[in-house]
Automatic annotation (TrEMBL):
The chain crosses the membrane at residues 20-44, 56-81, 93-119. It comes from Treponema bryantii. It comes from the Bacteria. This is Uncharacterized protein. Keywords: Membrane, Transmembrane, Transmembrane helix.
Length: 124
């Protein structure tokens, strides 16, 4: 009886790891940073920012989006594993949907930033 309690207790500690919570929070913060960069780029078009600043915003958006999409995919795999190993399936399914949405959004941002950067480079 005592071994079963230890196993349940250790499984509960494993399910609520600090690293998973920090990773999910970091993913949310980086996604919000991508949204801020998009907003700055759009505002910069109306405020007549210099071309170098606009290119810099696009390159930062591209790199941050690539990092966040890879990070989201890794967290999605971890969450997929957690769905089968833990009892809190609804919470993990919601986390997985949010992570897939974040990955798709960041892949879209990467593609869009690269296309805009290529088009704004002009004919050389």
């Amino acid at each position: 009886m005592r071994n079963k309690l230890k196993f349940k207790y250790s499984k509960k500690l494993f399910s609520n790891t600090l690293t998973y919570k920090v990773s999910m929070t970091l993913n949310l913060a980086i996604t919000a940073f991508c949204i801020i960069l998009i907003t700055l780029y759009i505002i910069g078009n109306y405020q007549n920012f210099q071309d170098d600043n606009q290119q810099w915003l696009l390159s930062v958006l591209s790199y941050v989006s690539i990092f966040n999409s890879l990070f989201s995919i890794v967290l999605t795999v971890e969450t997929f594993i957690k769905i089968f190993t833990e009892k809190q399936k609804v919470k993990n399914i919601i986390n997985m949907i949010a992570l897939v949405g974040s990955a798709v959004f960041c892949i879209f941002c990467t593609g869009t930033a690269n296309i805009i950067s290529y088009i704004s480079g002009g004919i050389n």
